[in-house]
Amino acid sequence: MTRERNKVSTSALAKMLGKSSRQLFTELEALGWIKREEQRWSLTAKGEFEQGSYRESERYGRYIVWPDSVTEHRALVNPEDRLTGARGLGLKSGLAASRINQLLADLGWVRPWLKGWQLTDTGEAQGGVQKEDIHTSIPYVVWPKTLPDNTVFKRALREFGLHMAEVEQCHGCRAMDGHLLRSEAEVKIDNWLYLAQIIHACDKPLPVAEQARADFYLPQAGLFIEYWGSEKSPSYLADKMRKKALYEAHNLAVIELQEVDLDALDEVLPRQLRRFGLAC
């Protein structure tokens, strides 16, 4: 009786597999586990071998039941159905796919490669599978849907969440790479650059005779980044205009970010960086 209680109907099995009842009945028939006889489904010898049996119901009459372990049967589970990409992982965690890939790179499970992502040996050990877009040939990686239960991945997500909570309260304004910054906004920009694996310096003196410092400097491209906040004090506005004039007068490459850009860094920064030959 215990084994019988652990059995489920074909419709319940379909739900467990994420399929429609009609789809599963069709698959079981194609596998030779069941056959249609006199307007009802019957077990074949193969179906009985797979531990299918019958159950009687006053409401439904005789119907077929299966052990719940059948959900792991290779014939019924497409390996691809157990995998998901960075977008799928992001939907579960509330992060953009680009941020998920950056966190995975920070763990050493993937690395940037040919405008996409290449699986590392460490990532393969976590169940990652290398793929390639059939249209663009850009490489990408898919992961087990169970990755959110992975201890290391969970810890990375948790630490990222805790860090962002601290950033929102501006506790010391320290970025993920250890840089100590002046504002929550600068921390968000620094974290984005760090996770995108872009080498950067903070509070960098401009290469001019006048005393002035840039918020960020990207040495690969000789590129500066300035964040202009919403502060309206006369001293802040004067310093802002002075620095703008220095960038223009000395023909220095600079990306200027506004407060409105902070919630769209995944869109704004890649587009701006490409103008200066930096892909991310």
From TrEMBL:
Name this protein carries in UniProt: Glycerol kinase
Native source species: Amphritea atlantica
Top-level taxonomy: Bacteria, Pseudomonadati, Pseudomonadota, Gammaproteobacteria, Oceanospirillales
